């Protein structure tokens, strides 16, 4: 993981210790159909799935994955009530990993080139941001991917499975570590 800048020095304020993320979120944050951005029978629905692994390559059974994406036409929905699954596409979903570290979403392929992915897991001091790019797109034109070495770029591209689903494994550390993004002012866009 790249070195991130530390917090700014604030005169007169003592530093406070960091705390890791979770594992409370795994039990507290999931909600009914949180992983269904669209119902499975929706025309054009696709399954985005994978495994979250730690630095030793072991599955992480209590991680939480969130995605945000454009719709099939490339428009990012700007609607309130993403927790309500009333048939309207909100472009946002959440999936907890199972005991084998697996997660799965039912969604549509974004008209843009990628899914924005957020990872929460035990032992992390903050959530991690990354992207899952669609395979087969012109990825050389992407401003982020064009700056990465080929090996790092591969960690951000989903694999099309024989059944048409998209597999995107997340490696928190190690030789196959997924490239994670830094947002210096604390906000993701």
Automatic annotation (TrEMBL):
Which residues lie in Pro residues bias regions?
A: 1-11
Enzyme superclass (EC): oxidoreductase
Its EC number(s): 1.13.11.3
The ranges of region (Disordered) come to 1-24
Q: Which UniProt keywords apply?
A: Dioxygenase, Oxidoreductase
Please list the GO terms describing molecular function.
Answer: protocatechuate 3,4-dioxygenase activity
Q: Which residues form the Intradiol ring-cleavage dioxygenases domain?
A: 22-113
Family to which this protein belongs: Belongs to the intradiol ring-cleavage dioxygenase family.
- Protein name in the entry: Protocatechuate 3,4-dioxygenase subunit alpha
Native source organism of the sequence? Nocardioides astragali
